[in-house]
Amino acid sequence: MFKLVFAFILALWSSFGAEGLEKRSIDLIAAHGLISDTKLPRAVTPNSYNIKLHPYAEHGNFSGEIRINATIQHRTKQISIHKHVDLKIIALKVAQLLPADYEPKKEQSENKVQILKSNWEQVPKQSIMTIDLSSEVNTGGVLEIFIQFKGPMFNNTSEGLFRSSYMDPDTKKNKWYVATFMRPNMARTVFPCFDEPSYKVPITLTVVRPNFMKAVSNMPLESSSDPNNYWVTDKFQTTPSIATFSMAVVISELNYTNHNVSDSEVYFPDIKMKIWARPDFIGALVNITTKVSKSIKFLEDFWGSPYPLPELNIFALPNYQATRPSDSWGVLMFKESELSSKGSWHLTQELVYQWLGALATPFWWSDAHINNALVRYVTAYTTLKIGENETFNNWPTTMLYSIYYEFSKRYPHGKNTAIKQDSSSAKTELVFRMLNYTLGESTFRHGMQRFMADRQYKTFFGDDIWMSLTDQARFDKTLPEPITINEIAGSWITKDRLPVVTVTRNYASNSAKIHQRVYLRERPHDVPDQEKFLWWIPVVLIRQDKMNFLNTTPLVWMKREREIEVQNLPNAENFVIVNPEEIGPFPVNYDTDNWNKLAKYLQTENRTKIPVYTRAKLLHDAWNLAYAGDLSFATALNMTLFLKNEREYLAWDPVFTLIDHIGKHIDSSAVHKKFQTYVRILLTPLYEELGNEPQQGESEGRAHLRSSSKVFLCQAGYLPCIEEAQKAFRKWSESTDPDEGNPVSNQYICPVFKWGTKEEWEFGLQRIINFPPGRKPSERTYLLKTLAGCPNDSWKIERLLNITVLEQNGNFSDNDIYLIFSMLTGGANGYTTLFNFLRKNWEPIKARFEEKPMLWNSIITSATTVFKTQEGLDLVSELYVERQTEFGNADFVIEKALKNIREETKWSNENLPIIEKWLDNYLKENKA
Predict the structure, then answer these.
(1) 259 beta partners
(2) Angle of the 345-355 helix axis to the 368-385 helix axis, nearest 10
(3) Which end of the chain is less packed: N or C, by CB atoms within 10 Å?
(4) What distance in Å separates the CA atoms of residue 827 and residue 425, rounded to the nearest whole number?
């Protein structure tokens, strides 16, 4: 149950500050996979590329040629360059360019070149070709490598040189377009080259296109052949030094709106900008110019460097399949939906890459995560500063909550590379945010300008960024000697952990001890070597008697010290807050007295003197620390009392996760019904005030708050919600052909299956059994998830298990059964019913899954591993004794389950009496 609810909330969150996370993580995974890639030998390095491409859109292939001007760095007779195995070489010629004062012999060319005999071969299992020369070339020799080639275009993915098509609404015919997406290392699929980010050289591109199409590249058009010929040859101006992944070309029949924005109301000096789209879609892009101009003006000031190219072409590409927009230099490509959306986050991020990534480029993929993290931070910072914050009001709290959760596990990330790369990059992004606060915006901005001035048109290492910030902080005297940013940042980004800081006040001496250790939320806290973990922590402290949230200069830095003492704190009547506004990515615990002072103050009208980010932090830290066993749940629940008068959705966000996580632990106990009553008392006034329907012009935050409160009220048995859901559900159950489609909004299905009648649940079961093959499989999957994961009645779950496992109904696949088992772990009713079903039907189930170890392991795992009380521990222990020799390859599952349940039982024994006592008092005071 609660797993499903939390999934709903995560889906809601993805519409707000978490926008784009999946896209970023995919890009990070690609870069991470290249860190250990074989580097080309440095014996030969390129000076320039002269490329000619001739795509044949209708045929799905292309031909081309390249002239690489290269210098010999070490005497050699072999050249290694990147070439994808699908790229076919037609001709190869290598010539050594002779010095200008060289006098050729009669038999030599007057062009002062010496042709070198050569042959090539593909390196097995690598996208590298080696060219063997007939004789060695000395250091300093200059070569021209001429290669003719041909290759296929990508048709199903938007990468390399790809083609796609769209329907012309006037002619009803398909129209092709051709484009490139070279990041991270796809240039080698288009032309032979030194396809590593450290090789930045000028590129001169020539493109052959049909005369009814237009070609666009990084630089303006220099010349074009006779337009009356079918094939037109366009030559573009030579680029500045550029990485191969930044090169771009688009050939299409798309139309554009032309803006030379120096003539308009918005800032855009001397840059020609074109917005390209299908003619019938251009009208949806009218506000792009304003968004881009605002962002570029801000970024030029931020980097202290003008936009580096004379043109900017932005494309809304129909049927664009790439997982993220293309951030080629001067050519940005988006899905139509991304470019037409009202937010500006996507646009701003790609514009940030024009400086960080294109103008200054990471030397190798190991530096890509710092590049990515800084791009993410500058994107968020820019979006907030220019006021385009409709999707950023909850940045960075959603991201913070995610990494707090991930890094506090006993085993962060598991084996999930996507989670590891994205959470690590998010942590580094938050380190940049911390430095911006603690050094001051002026120092941070000038440090970035110092970095960009030094590395523009060049490559950089991650340390170059930290050194620039250190140098600027030294100059501005905003960082005490001898601290360096390298030391500070290194203590954060090299660990898959985060600290928790504990502030224990001595009220008699107006002092406090500040202690740091590893933050562990998941029990047991038996992480090895945790005593070795120490961070550089900025102690930014707010005091009640002199509240100033604008001063973010640290009172002191914890210099990788386990504990320090601070003096001159306010007297015992006043609270303190450490790490306000989540300046650093770490939770903070206090002594009980300080927590109580905070809880009391938040219930007064002065509450809003504490900014909403900090109010959210205090609430989030309190319940997370209680969950980890570091704080009494009575204290943590006291921190929710101010919500009675709170209407800022940012402050409410932690509450929904609190409800979900505590609910998972107590839903098998007698406390659960009291907790559901608490949830209804807490959320009902909020929901009634917000109203059931969206209001015209309301903020996304308000809409988010309404949706979240409604979901949790429905799960807690709020009667108006259940009745509303049943009323909507009847439209489906009374329709003439219910298998044709689902006319009910998904938000209504779970409450009906949980709290509704037997007939309503049976109706859902029949819809799955009779699901037409022509409908989307995802609709059936969602229906099955809710049918299994939502019910409050054990008989519904048992009936579903009888049909799918014992009766072996042919309408349910093994994947369906696996999904059902997984969904039943979301609530005590589900996994307890599954356990009883397994115990009662052990022999037939064992026989059924004897040759299906995946399903056998799945049912053992789902039925035994999620109990949280002594009663559950006794049940699983008895089963283990009864069937000790019969678990087969699932034996390790049950042993691990018993260990985990003992920990959960310990948690329940310690916390349930405290939670219940607090709830009893709360319900009594609220006359519930």
Answers:
(1) 273
(2) 130
(3) C
(4) 33
Question: CA gyration radius for the chain?
Answer: 32
871's tokens: 């009663």
**In this structure, what token pair is assigned to residue 921?**
């008092």
Q: What is the pLDDT of residues 43-78, one digit of tens each?
A: 999 999 999 999 999 999 999 999 999 999 999 999
- pLDDT, tens only, 141-179: 999 999 999 999 998 789 999 999 999 888 889 999 999
Residues whose CB falls within 8 Å of the CB of residue 454, separated by 6 or more in sequence, listed in order:
464, 468
User: What is the C-alpha separation between 239 and 220, in angstroms, rounded?
Assistant: 9
Angle between helices 288-303 and 368-385 (to 10 degrees): 120
Is residue 397 within 8 A of residue 648, CB to CB? The reply is no
C-alpha separations of 53 from 73, 127, 251, 385, 628 in Å: 29, 20, 11, 42, 60
Q: Which range among 84-93, 412-421, 473-482, 722-731 shows the weakest confidence by mean pLDDT?
A: 412-421
List strand residue ranges (DSSP E) for 521-629, in order.
536-539, 541-543, 556-559, 563-566, 576-578, 588-590
| Residue 358 to residues 349, 355, 587, 894, Cα–Cα distance (Å) | 13, 6, 36, 53
Does the model's pTM come out above 0.85?
yes
What pLDDT was estimated at residue 19?
37
Provide the β-strand partners of residue 116.
Answer: 94
Closest CA to 161 of 202, 131, 193, 120: 193
Per residue, the 3-state secondary structure of 120-148, as one string, reads EEECCCCCEEEEEEEEEECCCCEEEEEEE
Secondary structure letter of residue 695 according to DSSP:
P
> CA–CA separation, 712 vs 363, rounded Å?
49
Cα separation of 66 and 437, whole Å? 49
Q: Are 222 and 205 in contact (CB under 8 A)?
A: no
Per the CB < 8 A criterion, the answer to whether 312 and 338 are in contact is: no
Amino acid 15: pLDDT: 31
Q: How many Å apart are CA 359 and CA 307, to the nearest integer?
A: 9
Task: List, edge to edge, every strand of the sheet that includes 588-590.
Answer: 563-566, 511-518, 499-506, 588-590
What is the structure's pLDDT at 612?
94
C-alpha pair distances (Å), 902 with each of 9, 244, 863: 29, 56, 16
Q: Per the structure block, which two tokens stand in for 598?
A: 């905070």
Residue 77's φ and ψ, nearest 5 degrees, are: -125, 15
d(CA 74, CA 140): 8
CB 468 within 8 A of CB 451: yes
Dig out the tokens for 156 from the structure.
Answer: 């199903």
Answer whether 192's CB lies under 8 Å from 199's CB: no
- pLDDT for 108 equals 43
